[in-house]
Amino acid sequence: MNFLKNFLQTCANVEKHTDTIAYLASLDHISKNYPIIANAILDELKSQRNSLKLIASENYSSLAVQLAMGNLLTDKYAEGHPGHRFYAGCEHVDTVESYAVDTAKSLFGAEHAYVQPHSGADANLVAFWSILIKRVETPAVEALGKKSVAALTPEEFETIRQEFSKQKLLGLALDCGGHLTHGSRVNLSSKMMKAVSYGVDPKTGLIDYKQVEEIAMREKPLILIAGYSSYPRLIDFAKMREIADRCGATLLVDMAHFAGLVAGKALVGNFDPVPFAHIVTSTTHKTLRGPRGGLILCKEEFKPFIDKGCPFALGGPLPHVMASKAISFKEALDPSFKAYAKQIIENAQTLAKRFKSKGVSLITDGTDNHLLLIDVQKNFGLNGRQAESLLSSLGCTVNRNSIPNDPNGAWYCSGIRIGTPALTTRGFKNEEMEKIADILYDVLKEAKPNGMAESVISENVRSRAKREIDELLQNKPLYPEIKTGDLVHV
Ligand code: PLP
User: Which of 56, 108, 267, 418 lies in disulfide reach of 271, CB 3.0 to 4.6 Å?
Assistant: First the structure.
């Protein structure tokens, strides 16, 4: 219960460390009455600090981003949007939300931003329905000479409702790197509309724009989705927009994974989705390094529809999280974020190069972004689950991941996805990345399957890998000002 006291005993510059002081004070306060929660936070901090976080979708947010969520903004209902609320007393939430919107707009050069989605999945849901309302419902209501959907008879409403499920959504297949919300059978996205998918070239692993165009022209989707959860290459959004225009689709780019690379201007020209897409959805917590949440950017013509996310599909927004998003957007406007985004890619490419120098083949033969995909079945005779659990046991977290046409199915998988955003935040650079590739390679090449979910290595290899991983972690501590010795259970 003395987290703050211990810190202050050795802190030479209190002014400089107000974030750490606030963080430790909150831990002290929680630990007084809620030890189970305080201990879980401590354990999470220790676990994140003591592992090589190579999960491509995770990062480490700043203490300022975290602290902005811990205040009474959470107590406020604010359905609607700034200047147009369904609740009274929203002036200060208006200030927060407007600031977040304006900062997002200037960060991404977008015509409009909507910062209310609670997650990336919510952002996609709002985007899908905004397109359906703009392109299917609104013209149908107008054709009936009615002012709004509320003025329709039940029969008229039912006729329009049925039209929604006839529409098509075209996105990258899940096993080729698409996301569940891009039309997977287990997700709502394939149940509210007909979902069709494009894949990747079986030889190169790359998106084949000709194939996308053929499918798009045949299926005439209402929505064309570009974006991914595990595709290690860039997407040409100018080409995607051309295809969308040709088949009459609205182009939705889901940049959940690479928003930070766009914000940091590491992806520019045809690889920056904002100028080309009608709508861009995102998470704020992956490469963008903000709080857990969603974001939508759109062209002016979609603004009135996107801004109705609440009450249409969402409940009240989370004002404390919008405050935190605003801080993360501001942080991403700092010139240092450009260097960060560039380093994320450099780190991924260094890993890729090192693996390749050892004869490991990579899906698509390399990476242009923050992640790489290794077929561990082909390279090491392990399924994804066996590789994932072995690396986890050594303090190195990676995701098992499907590869195109995965022979091991979606549960065991044949691949692992390795991402660099979190370790780059922690200060890891090329030299450390080479070391990490060496460690992973040494471990995976020695591993022997032991059942479907486990694999084993000799004690020798295990202790060497553990020692090397610990050394890397100790050299680049997470929140270095907070001493591990102080983090004792309450
Ligand atoms: N879109 C993509 C491309 C993603 O990778 C993810 C999450 O992994 C999401 C959407 C969903 O984000 P969330 O988990 O915040 O709902």
Answer: 267
